[in-house]
Amino acid sequence: MRASVVAEKAGFPSVSIASSGFLGQAQAVGQALGIQNVSVAEYPGVVATDSDEDVKRKVTEIVVNNVIEAMARQVKQVPKPKEPQRTDIVFEGTLDEVQEFFYRRLWSDGLPIIPPTIERVEKFLKFTNRPADQIISNLLPEKRDATVWNIAVNGVMAGCRPEYMPILLAVVEAIADPEFRIQDAGSTPGWEPLIILNGPIIKELNFNYETGVMRVGRQPNTSIGRFLRLYMRNIAGLRILPMSSDKATIGDTFNLVLAENEDVVAELGWEPFSVSRGFKKGENVVTVQSVVYTSPPIASGGDKAREHLNTWVEVIGSTASHWTHMAINWWKYYPVIVTSPSIARVIAKEGLTKKDIGQYLYDNAKVSAGSTERLALQGGFTWFNLKRMVEEKQIPTIYHESSDPDRMIPVFIKPEWIGVVVSGDPGRNRSRGYIQNHEQGAPVSRKIELPDNWKQMLSSNLK
Amino acid sequence: MQEPNYKVVWPLGKLAYEPMTLQPRPASLNGLTICELSDYGFKAEIIFPFLRELLKQRYPDIKFVEYSAFGNTHGTHEDEVIAKLPEKLKEYGCNAVISGVGG
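^ Those are the sequences you sent over. The predicted structure of the assembly is below.
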């Protein structure tokens, strides 16, 4: 759809062919790029489950006519809708009435919200030095302005406390970075963003980084995770209705904030996750990246590093191998291993670092080339062919050293792209892999800007 | 006791796009050069060649620039491919574009 819009903007009449399930998304993306009622030729049904003969029949009987008709269809420009101003009171009512009003307009996520009154929003604004009307960016696909004001509004709604505002701002700045590709957050695998948090703010705001770290129950971890999904619905327009741009086939629920156990990291002489992202130890940093699925919860035992590392190669490696074709296609892949402190201690005891873990997994986790090509083909990537990609110098020669479909290729793309975060129950030996969705939701980190008199404001707000 | 009322504000942001109109549509495809753009997926390698033949049957003087001339619009070098599109479409003398396949 974006290619068509670029062509139209360059002066060329264009038509996009899209299967039935994507007509709504095409319109939503077209609108965000400035075109109401884009020219789309429908391919009826689901391409990937049609036989080649069915495809030919549908193109002959239906698609060719749809293309001709869409190319001839002239569409008039539609003006932008009139919408409320920042401080307009859009509704007045009881708690139940507010819930209903927001729910019916698709402004909530289905859970009860805290009513965003001006008084509540202003409490959040006290926790930033920035002006309320400052525009951070605009968020595709709906292309609405992300502002300091509407970050506070959605923070109120999600159940955040006012003092979380500096984190909310940093999170939105991260997802607005073009590297993150928020416009792809409605893609069919249904990935969710994950916020990884480092710095003294973890303790200052009482984040959970121990038992049940990713389970709802602790207010900052939970409400900030909820905020991000709500913000993506309201500002990026990622809603899950017909004619909307969230095309998650099945989808998943929002992730909680993953805070690192920096006491254990310091004890082991390891770097906090944020340092591997280019920041100084002791800085408050958020990293936001996609998670498309997770590994099973792994229990690994033994007092030798290799025992744990080999279990990770086996379990996280095999889990991540189901996404290797996507990683190769976009040449990006940033999985994160979350390990409980007891396992980290065993590995660190042998002098190994987080970087060494990434290297070990890269060197040892392998998948068959045949399986990778088959998964790509079934996912709709009908051009995916490792031999051709090597010949065209898109990927290194290690991906096609022979024509044997059983030859083994690396699961991961680069060792330095494998992240490690220490978190979870200090009394147990478990870990889990968080598999990332290639170029979509690539990791972006931002330093958290604290307001003047942060400590003083925090202490008076907590009283 | 009466339940309190809440005066609430709008949670969305201003729409940042500028509306634009589609380019004037051609009266016929005959004699035109059609440029194909593809994400190289969802059986594009079957759909495009077949569509090409069907359109040639209806419009004998139609010409095509095949999608391989432009690169994958949704792959590893997507941003680069998209950035070069306006220039390449002019270079190939395109009159109209067919892009696909969204699936």
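Residues 6 and 12 of chain B are 18 Å apart (CA to CA). Strands of chain B lie at 6-9, 33-38, 63-65, 96-102.

Shout if you want it in another format.
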